[in-house]
Amino acid sequence: MIRICLTGQLRDLTHGAPEVDLASPDDLDGVVRELDAAYPGIGRRIVDDQGKIRKYVNVFVNAENSRALENEKTRLKDGDVVHILPSVAGG
Questions:
Q1: Using one digit for the tens of pLDDT, what is the confidence trace for 15-71?
Q2: What is the CATH number of the domain that holds 68?
Q3: Is residue 43 part of a domain?
């Protein structure tokens, strides 16, 4: 299982759940697909039309920024923890 931790901005789509366990997707692309299948609409908040992680969304795999890894193609293994953190803007 892969544990996905979500911030408040995304929790409105997961019925308030701060964490979701997924059945071992192979990579971050798989995380987005599985999340979107379970919670329609969450995928477009994370990736753009080309399937790339949006610039304002930070994704960490076991505390490492996915941009320092392989972004959407970052491989996952059982027990990994993924944090998805959309940036918060305002003034």
A1: 999 999 999 899 999 999 999 999 999 999 999 999 999 999 999 999 999 999 999
A2: 3.10.20.30
A3: yes
Query: Residue 36: which of 20, 57, 60 has the closest Cα?
Result: 20
Dihedral sign for Cα 72, 49, 32, 83, please: positive
CA distance 70 to 76: 11
Tell me 77's DSSP state.
-
Q: Containing domain of residue 79, as a range? A: 2-86
pTM: 0.92
How many domains, in total, are found in the chain? Answer: 1
Dist. CA 14–CA 46, nearest whole Å: 14
